[in-house]
Amino acid sequence: MKNSSYLFVEEDKRGRFFVIICKGVTLLSVSLLFFMFLFIAKESLIFFQNTPLRAFLTGQRWNPLATPPAFGLAPMIAATVYVSVLATAIAFPIGVGVATFLSVLAGNKLPNICLPLIDLMAGIPSVVYGFAGLLIIVKFFETHFSFSSGESILAGGILLSVMILPYIISTCHESATKILRRYKHVSTALGVSRWHMIRYLLFPSMSKALFSALILSFSRAMGETMAVMMVIGNSPIFPKLLHKAQTIPGLIALEMGGAHVGSPHYRALFAAGFVLMFVLFVFNTLFFIIEKSLEGDA
Amino acid sequence: MDPMLETRNLSVSFGGKVILKGINVSIPPHQITAIIGPSGCGKSTFLKSLNRLINEEEGAITEGHVLLDGENILSLQPEKVRRRIGMVFQTPTPFPLSIFDNMAYPLRYYGYKKENIHTIIIEKLKIAGLYEEVQNNLSMKATLLSGGQQQRLCIARALTVEPEILLLDEPCSALDIKNTLNIETMLAKLCEHYTIIIVTHNLFQARRLAHKTLFMLDGEIVEEGCTSTIFSQPQDERTAEYISGIYG
Amino acid sequence: MNRFRRYRGIRIWLFISICLTFASLAIILGYIFIHGINELSIQFLLGTPQGFPLGIEGGIWPAIMGSLGFTSIACLFGSILAIPTAIWLVFYNKNLCITSLCHFFIYSMAGVPSIILGLFGYAFFVVTLKLGVSLLSGGLILGVMIFPFIEVRVEKSFREFPLQLVQASLALGVTRTWTLFHLVFPASLGDIASAIALGGSFAMGATAPILFTGAVLFAPVPRSLFSPAMALPNHLYILVGQGISLSKAYGTALVLIIILLALNSVPIFIRMHRKEG
C-alpha cells in the first residue's frame, strides 16, 4: 500500500477549517497584485482606444484643459527618468562607499550603531524629506546661487539621492559581509592589504549585488512621489537640470483631485499610472531574479 | 511471545531514492531493542516511519505494512499512531516554556483534567529521575536546564501520554558519560512497562542495554537477534566487520 | 609608503561617503527638531486648525486622531492579510515552486509606487465599492501597502522557529494546528507585534495613498469609519505646499517624527523584554 505525504489527513475538523482559511487568505493577498493591475489596465485601455499608445508616450504637450485636450506624457517620462538617473548617480558611489566602510574598516561596534541609523533614514516619511528638501536644498539654491526658483531637477535629484541611500547601503553591506566572511581571512593570510582586497577581491565579487542595488534604487527613485513633488516645481515641460519639471507620480498626485471620474483626463492619469507601474514591474522583476540567484550563490 | 510491533516489507523512498528496502522485523514487547549500523544506513528513517513522522517530510513514499498489535498503522491517522508510539530525538527539544508547561503540553491537548495533570507530571518526572532535581523549580524555563536534564525532561514528556512503545534516536549522543549512564539506567527500568527501540552509534551502549539488536546496512536489516549472540557470534560477515570497528 | 599614497583616494572616498550620509540625516532631523520644538504646546497638540487660511493658527489634534485611525485600520487589515499568508506558506505549503511564486507576487506588491496605490484605492474603494473618501478607504489601501512589509517579517520569524520543536510536538501526537496555536504563536508573538508596529509606522508616514482616498484638507476628529479625516503627513504637505505656515509645519513634522520614533522603538523594547525573560 502506498502512502505519500499529505497534509489534511492528520487534521481534525477544526484544523482543516483553519488551513482552508489560511490558504484562502494567501490566495486573496497574492491576487491583489493582479487585481490592481487589471483595474488600472482597464481604465487605461479605454483611454488607449482614443489616444494611441505611441502618441501618448511621445507627445510633448500635456494640457488636459485645452480643447481638444492634449495628453502627451513624454516630458513627464523624461523628467522621471532624468531625476532618477541623477539621484542614482549621486547616491550610488556614496552608498557603496558607506557599505564598504562599514563592512571592512569599521570594527564590530560602529556598524551596530550605524546600521540602525541607516534604517532610520529609510523610515523617515517621504513628505518629511520633501519638507526638508524645500527648506534646505531649494532655499540654498535660491539664496546662494540666486536662482529665481530653487525648485528644479537638480534639487529633486539631490533629495532623492538621500532617500535611496539606505537601500543601496543595506543591499551592498549585506553582500559585502557575506563575501568577507568567506574570504577575508584567506586574503589576510596572503599578507595582502585591506585596500588591495577591497579593490581586487571585494568589488569584483560584489558585482552582481552592485548591479541589483543599482536596479533597486533606480526603481525606488522612479516611484517616489511626495518628496520629489515638493522640490521639483511641477511644470509639465521638458526637463532641464536647473529648471522646473514634473514626474509621473507628481502629475498623478496633483491632477487626480481635479479630474472627474470617467472623464478622458481621469483615464489619461490612469494610463500614466499604468505606464509607470509596468516599467517598475519590469525593473522589480529583474531585481527579484538577481536576488534569487545571489541567494543561490551564498 | 507475540511481537509488539512488526514490519512487513517496509520500504521508504525520497524523491526516487530508496532509503529502506523491504524491512521485515519484529519487536518483542517489554524489551529494549537496539538498532545499530553506520551513518546513513537508514536507522533514523526507519524510526520515523514507525511513528509516521516520515510523512511530514516532502516527497516521502512509504510502502508495506507496520503492524502494531496486529493493526496496520500506515492506515491509521498519524496522531493516533503517535500517541501509542512516542519519540525522543537526538538533540534535546524542550519547548520554550516552563518545565511544568512542557509536561502539561500534551496532557492539555488530550484534554486531561487539571487535577490529573499535576499527578501525572510528578509521576513521570519521578520515573525519569528528574523530579528531585526540579521539584522546587517547576515554573523555571526548561531551556535553562542542563543538556542531560533536558533530555530526561523530553523522555518524561513523551511518557505523559502513556505510549506503548518509546522510540529513541541516539538519545545520548549529545550528552556526557554521567548523563548517558543516568538515562541508560532509566531506560532499563522503563522496559518493565514500555517497549523500547533505541537507535545508537555506541556499540557498548547497545551491549549494555538491549535484549535484542538489529544491524542495519544500506537500508536493509542484515542481521537480527539476541544481543549477546550478535556481539559474540555474528552470523553475517558484515555484522562482524561493523562490530569490530571497520565501518564506524 | 607607496601603497599608502596609492590608496589615499579610496580612503578619502570612504570618509566623505560616511560623512555625507550621516550629515544629511543629522541635518534633516536636527532642523526639524530645532525649529519644531517651540511649536509643541498643549494647544498645538490638542487644538484644531484655526485662522484664515485654515491652519495658520490652532493645533493639529484632528490630524493626529485621523492618522491614528488610518494607521489602526491599516495595521488590522494588513495583519489579517499577512499573518494567515505567512502561516500557510511556512507551515502548510510544501511546494517550493508555489512558495517562490507567492514571494514574487508579494515582493512585486511592495514595489508598487504609493501613488499607484492611491489611484487604485480611489478607483476601487472610493468609487466602485462606494465607500467614499473615508477612514475606511484610506485605511484599507494603507493596509494593502503594508501587507508585504508585515508578511515578510512574520514569515521570517516563523521560519526561524526550530523545526525540531515542531517535530517534537508532532511526535507527541499533537496536530499541526494545535502545535501552531499553543507552541509556535506564543513564541512568535513578540516578532509579530514588532512587525505590526513597524508596518504601522510605515503607514503613518504615507501621504500619497490617502491623498484622494481618505485624507482631506480639514475635517473634525472622525466619528465613523465612513467619515473623511485629516492626516499628519497630508496636513504637513498642505501647510508647506500652500505656504500656510512654516512654523506650524515644523511642529507637525516634529509630532509626526516623534510618533514614528515611538512606533519604531516598540521592537526594541520587545527585544529587551525577551532578553530578560
- Gyration radius of chain B, in Å: 18 Å
Helix content of chain A: over 70%
The domain tally of chain A reads: 1
Q: What's the helix-strand series of chain B?
A: EEEHEEHEHHHHEHEHEEHH
Q: Averaged pLDDT of chain B, please? A: 88
Radius of gyration of chain A equals 24 Å
Which outline of chain A best applies?
A: globular
What is the succession of H and E elements of chain A? EHHEEHHHHHHHHH
> What is the 3D form of chain B?
globular
CATH topology of the domain at 30-35 and 77-212 in chain B: Rossmann fold
CATH class of chain A: Mainly Alpha
- Strand fraction of chain A equals under 5%
CATH architectural group of chain A = Orthogonal Bundle
Q: Structural class of chain B, please?
A: alpha/beta
Return residue spans of chain A where pLDDT drops below 50 for at least 5 consecutive residues: 1-10
State the end-to-end distance of chain A.
41 Å
Kindly list the characteristics that best describe this protein.
heterotrimer, A: 298 residues, mainly alpha, MetI-like fold, two-stranded antiparallel sheet, 11 helices, 3 strands, 75% helix, 2% strand, disordered N terminus, B: alpha/beta, 37% helix
Protein architecture, described:
- The complex is a heterotrimer of chains A (298), B (248) and C (277).
- Chain A is built from eleven helices and three strands, in the order E-H-H-E-E-H-H-H-H-H-H-H-H-H.
- Chain A has 298 residues and is an all-alpha fold.
- The model of chain B has no long low-confidence stretch (mean pLDDT 88).
- Chain C has one domain: Orthogonal Bundle (MetI-like fold), CATH 1.10.3720.10.
- In chain C, 74% of the residues lie in helices and 1% in strands.
- Chain C has a two-stranded antiparallel sheet with strand order 1-2.
- In chain C, a hairpin with a 6-residue loop joins strand 1 and strand 2.
- Strand 1 (2-4) of chain A pairs antiparallel with strand 4 (60-68) of chain B.
